[in-house]
Amino acid sequence: MVLIVPYTAFDAEFAQMISRQYRDIRVFMAPEQQFKQCVLFGIKRKSDRIDLATAKMLTDMSTGTFPPVLDENFPHTPYSVPKTVDKPHFVATRLTVEEAQFELDKVQHACLWPTWQTFSGSTVLQPRRPTTGSQRLAFIPCSGRRSGQWASAISGRACSPR
Fold first, then answer.
1. What is the rounded CA–CA span in Å between residue 133 and residue 153?
2. Fewer beta carbons within 10 angstroms: which end of the chain, N or C?
3. Which residues contact 56 (CB under 8 A, 6 or more apart)?
């Protein structure tokens, strides 16, 4: 696994999850620190026990104990991916429209999907006229931009220029 994440994200729960599911974890600070990121390397393992030393090292990063910066020349031997002898097993999950809507409703507060039209520019928003408060209402006849009668949005009083 290669994980690039802000080092401030390592709370106790996240650090325990990483230390429980991965072994030989190596952490380096990213060379560019504009986004406060670190690079984490690990190998997946089948274990449910937490490596307390690794979990402590990860949580210490959020408090200011930083690992070394990732060098251009990686000092460790590269991990070789073992060959598989089994046939690949592909799993696909299909959702109905109702199931997809249910899943989207659960994460609606955390994603941009509900506001996609705003970001994609597929809808054109009409400019909104400012609401007429009492002071603005007094200046409208003076500016000559309005003629005839109109009503205040606040009091509902009818007004007309003289």
1. 7
2. C
3. 15
Identify which of 8, 3, 5 has the alpha carbon closest to the alpha carbon of residue 62: 8
Q: Which residue type is seen at 53?
A: A
Domain-wise residue ranges, the chain? 2-61, 130-162
Within 8 A by CB and 6+ apart from 91, the residues are none
Among 76, 27, 24, CA closest to 51:
24
Q: Render 36-70 in DSSP notation, one character per residue.
A: -EEEEEEEE----S--HHHHHHHHHHTTT---PBP
CB contact at 8 A, 156 and 137: no
Tens of pLDDT, residue by residue over 28-83, are 888 887 888 888 888 888 877 888 888 888 888 777 777 777 777 777 777 777 78
- Residues 19/50, Cβ–Cβ less than 8 Å: yes
List Cα–Cα distances, 28 to 61, 107, 145, 149, in angstroms. 11, 32, 64, 70
Question: CB neighbours (10 Å) of residue 64?
Answer: 7
Asked if residues 153 and 132 have their Cβ atoms less than 8 Å apart, the reply is yes
* Residue 80, C-beta contacts closer than 8 angstroms, at least 6 positions apart: none
Q: Is the pTM of this model over 0.70?
A: no
